[in-house]
Amino acid sequence: MEIVHQTPFVKIFYDETVPVVFEAWLGQVSGSEFRKALDQKLEAYKQLAQKHEQLFWLNDVRKLRGVSNEDQQWAVDEFHPKLYPAGVKKVAFVVPEQTYFRLSDEDITGKLDARKEVEICYFDDFDSAYAWFKEGVEAHQVN
User: What residues are paired with 14 via a beta bridge?
Assistant: First the structure.
């Protein structure tokens, strides 16, 4: 596993064994830091996607705090529409158990899924998310 971008608020990793690009939020984040990190992750994804027939997108939002309604709307309206053209087809969220945060994340990403361009699934841990990605790889190899 390789760190491709790091700040005090987020680490963005690349795991070639899956393959997947994912960010792990480390706590409270400002709107500008949130937006910048997502843009950095998308740029890393685009570069790494050149090496892979299929590359996955994973979000660990269990510790993410402080994202305003305005920043959430930016993610839905401006950022998410960039994912499919970049080649993202499967997105996994590792979410906290607290209902408030889980519902918030599902509301944000449900709008992306409504376009039927990107398959989205929610998990309580990385192992389950990785297993879901690997199922996608195996199904792709059969076709």
Answer: 2, 21
Count of helix runs (H) and strand runs (E) in the chain: 5, 6
Domains in the chain and their CATH numbers? 2-142 (3.40.50.10600)
Which residues 6+ apart lie within 8 Å of 9 measured at CB? Answer: 25, 26, 27, 28, 29, 33, 37
Collapsing DSSP to helix, strand or coil, 8 comes out as: coil
Q: Residue 93 and residue 80: Cα distance in Å, rounded? A: 14
Element (H, E) at 134: helix 126-142
Per-residue pLDDT tens digits for 53-81? 889 999 999 999 888 989 988 988 899 88
For residue 110, CA distances in Å to 17, 42, 104 come to 28, 19, 10
